[in-house]
Amino acid sequence: MAFFHFKNVRVAGISAGVPSTVINNLTSERRFSKDYDNADFVATTGVVERRIDQNLTASDLCYKAAKKLISDLNWNANEIDAVIMVSQTLDYVLPATACIMQHRLGCSKDCYAEDIQLGCSGWVYGMSNVAALIQNGDIKRALLCAGDGRHHIICPELEDPLFGFAGSVTALEYDEGNDGIKCNFGTDGSGYDAIIRPQGGTRNPIDASIFNVVEITGKQHNGMSTRMKGMDVFSFGISTAPKSVKRLAEKYGFNYLDADYFVFHQANMKMNQLIAKKLKLNVEKVPVSMDRYGNTSSASIPLTIVDEFSSWGEVVNPSVLNEETFICCGFGVGLSWGTIYFKANNMVISPIVEVNSDEHML
Fold this sequence. Notes:
Strand content: 25-35%
Oligomer: single chain
């Protein structure tokens, strides 16, 4: 198990952007499976609504969220030293989307920019990467952008009712003396095919068959759609997440039950309920967002935090958290998992940004 303690790092703020278009799985005219109706799907997964817009990318959503957070923090984009982009749905095969984000945000050309291709565990991995860059003070301020948008324009019938579009931005900065972020990570590559998009890489290059739709375990797929062994992933999540939380607490000598909030990757309502039960958690400490946004992959943890504390309606002022402690655990594609612990110190939570189709720039 990999453990890290990155000191002198402060989580300055978190923001999130979602499409303004809402898809309701219960009222959708489209039936997502021939084996069960939409109400059964909602009862099983907990996903009632999702935000979908095929004209927006993950980076569009992250861009709008970043602009809001930079404003709320009173930061200058020229003073941002690093931009990290975590996504499974990057803008292009190349160049790196982080490079495009650096330009769109108006960051200095001295800015460090890097993509990380991870899914459900991506945000916690990204937090460790950014914290490692900051801890010695060589980089003072950084943005971690994390999000996904699964496009099915060519084959709209392959849209999965589990997933939604979202982008998130977490601002971190050097803060001398701050206890920072404690981390635990693990990987089991033997389960690489538990969640997989089989074609399009160099192992199985694109060919004419990539758009052929086939039925696999009752669902429609083509070579570029994500396939998941549901029960394997479910078993992996409910066993790995509680162990990771406990090991992190044991390593650094704190009682995990004393944490104020436990934010888990929003994959499946029943899965997260079982994880919380195994850890003996008070449900009031475990915020949920998947019922309104679906599984948003690497954005799901920060989106849940923002949703929990964000102001809605006419009030557009950010919230500020101080002294609240967070344990956040992501798990999934890889198979990979990770848990982090940190304390809020004047951490700004921007209101959720709703993005329209005509607001993308590239």
